[in-house]
Amino acid sequence: MTAAPTPTPAKRPRVPKTVWDLIFTLVIPILILSPNILGSGISVAEQVFGGGTTGNVRAYLLAALIPVGYVLWDLLVNRNVSPVALIGGAGALFSGALAFWYVDGFWYAIKDSARSYLTGLLFLISAATSVPLFRVFIDATSIGESPEHRAATQTAMRDPLVRRGLVQGTVVFAVVDLIGGVVNSVVNYQRVTAKFGTDDFNAQIAAVNAVMRVPGLIISLVGVAGAVWLLNRAVTARYGAGASLFEPGKLADRMRERGEPVA
Length: 263
Prior knowledge:
It is built from 11 helices and no strands. It is mainly alpha-helical.
């Protein structure tokens, strides 16, 4: 009698990376900053760091540095050395360094958006160079493609019309990022009014972080969508309907149909 096959144990579903991102960059920092975690009466500043100005400052630093450590840990563990990941890592280090700039009021509002301001300015400057930075994102999307398809993408991006679309997309992305920084600064200036090192200061930061996460994400997506639309419009105008840098196979087919070299 043939023994029944042993059933293969079902794989436990993995927690999506987006969930981990939210936990380490939003949920944990908010809990650390809260003077009364979920109404429990527990405060990291009080119970862990002894309370007072010193406890609040240490809790503030811990909440600011945990997202930095998470981003760098993710970068090292996954050995992700793509330009996009490296830009994200550099931005995390910049934010971590700013955590030690102890300010409140107007300057805190500026500091909290400094990463957006720096990114926007760098992208604007790059638009005037031979390598507009939005191209970095396009390069990243083709890393896993075949050599032929990747070559088609690189060839298309060297075309003057497509390059103009890359420049326009870079400018749009930069301008929207700067606008997002201004919006975030205004909200912080209006809502974070307490003195640095107080319970109220940390609590107000936690509240603003929670309030601004979704609007900040929407603003960023608007910038990316606008840049992608401008780029796709340029590629379509150059290579015909259906051509897209995000579908290298179709792009290569359109280039061959036109008798143009793929590489």
